[in-house]
Amino acid sequence: MNNLKLKKALLVFLLLPAYMGTAQIEEGLFLQNVNARKVEKLDGLWQVIVDPLENGYYNHRYQPRDDGYFKNSKMKSPSDLIEYDFDTDLELMVPGDWNTQSDKLYYYEGTVWYKRDFDYLPEEGQRVYVHFAGVNYEARVYLNGEYLGKHTGGFTSFMFEITDIVREKDNFLVVKVDNTRKREGIPTVNTDWWNYGGITRSVQLVSVPRKHIVDYNVSLSKVSKGTIEGWVKVSSAGEEERVKLTIPELSISQSFALNSQGVAQFRIKADPRLWSPSYPKRYEVQFTFFSDSIEDQIGFRKIETRGDKILLNGKEIFLKGISIHEEAPFKTGRVTSREECITLLNWAKELGCNFIRLAHYPHSEQMVQEAERMGLMVWSEIPVYWTIQYDNKYTYTLAEQQLTEMISRDRNRAGIVLWSIANETPVSFMRNDFLKKLAKKARELDDGRLITAALDTHSGDQGVRVIDDPLGEIVDVIGINNYCGWYSQETKSCAAIRWKNSYGKPVIVSEFGAGALQGYHGNANERWTEEYQDAVYNYNIEMLKNMDFLGGVSPWILMDFRSPRRHLKKIQKDFNRKGLISEQGRKKKAFYTLQSYYNKG
Ligand code: GCB
Predict the structure, then answer these.
(1) How confident is the model at residue 22, as a pLDDT?
(2) Which of 26, 86, 152, 488 could pair with 115 as two cysteines, CB 3.0-4.6 Å apart?
(3) Is the distance from CB of 514 to CB of 485 less than 8 angstroms?
(4) Of ligand 1's atoms, which has the minimum distance to the CA of residue 360?
(5) Cα 494 versus chain centre, distance
(6) Domain 304-600, CATH
């Protein structure tokens, strides 16, 4: 690094202003379908400083103010304070978690400062943004020494405008990434997955003309037959300005007047071939507004329930699924490439799935798009998991923000059929109110999908298991997680379980399963053997056959994944072993058992 750059980096590290632990959430900027815009990727190696003591903020003379700005943030020569700069040996790959990139960072929770230099040739009349597809858990972003803002939540995208800050040469982008678990966070401190820290998804510069398309939604009308409907929003619209929509394959080419908010709504008679797992048809859709135009691939379908059945395009469908964590096959750590998404999805297809549960947080945009392209229906979820602080308003705001960001990003994906708002959340008044509010919000944001949540159940009289949770009244589809043969009961007894569902709604068994170390064999009574896991699958599949309100199933889980709760030596070694496939990509016996169940049905 040359001297000037070094000084600048040093300066920004010492003077970086930021909000410190305030309960404030910043309203984010948003652009639909960022990847289809003019982008420059900032992926690759970034220089980093690991900062467990928060030296970037604290030093022997100055404490940060509550708003995060140093008392003396106008300091001209900070060099007498601390001697940190970005001229370090440590570099990390973006996108990527830090835990699997450096042994020293395997268990690390705290702050890492990332820095990336770049040149950029801004075009006349364009607006420029820096876009992050995912940073776990909190990100504070600075460009050329200026604080752009912060984002909370590890699995949704965010961006900042940099039009007036970015320059042709020697830009330096600094991100303070902090993956410290927080009691009041979403998720909270306790989970069954690894708290991978870092800039785990791509970073890119996005440029759009001043007058541009911000957001849109195009879908099949739920109410009028043979109608495509939706809306489009532009950055700013003058009187009589119009936006154009084309769907060439449907011979649609129409323009619409924009209102004073820059929004146009539309309804068009059309007869598209409908998207389904057996025919995952998507149409090229294009919006044009002045010099801006954007293309998307959009499928049209209808998902609804009737009584205890799930209907896709008016026909009953059984969701043959599998749960998936966003963990990379073979190399472990977070998924970072399209190839890794496709490997996971191909395994799901090989199992005979038409459905996947993307647990327990929003997966990447790429994963969702590939799933849709391959004809997999998707359950997409926010990490409202176990014992979050249901009585904390800030926690609710975070949950609602993540829900909003998930729906905003993926609202045009026909493949997504279910939004899940919670997983195994113990019933209480506060929790019920919290989740009712979230469900209401989800419906306000999007009425084209079903709302679900994975609920706990309990045992009732004569060994009947009962679904009894006030949330059953609220959701459209009830998810239940049940580990018969693993956390409770003998494997053999699972087949005889009877269920009571008095909600008259479809149920998805969103989890069942058992741990097995791939390659470890024994008899079917020996825990951790492939045979034991297989027996659990066999008996649970028998149980499913007795559930006449069953709308689908997504056993736990496609591949072994890292978890801080799984310490058994020789067997777990920090992995939850309930995968049907090992993290090295080897299939266990139960894979074939589930496959044969799906192939028969
Ligand atoms: C569950 C959780 C899931 C865990 C799984 C297990 O009920 O929803 O996150 O990983 O059980 O393996 O215990």
Answers:
(1) 34
(2) 86
(3) yes
(4) 9
(5) 33
(6) 3.20.20.80
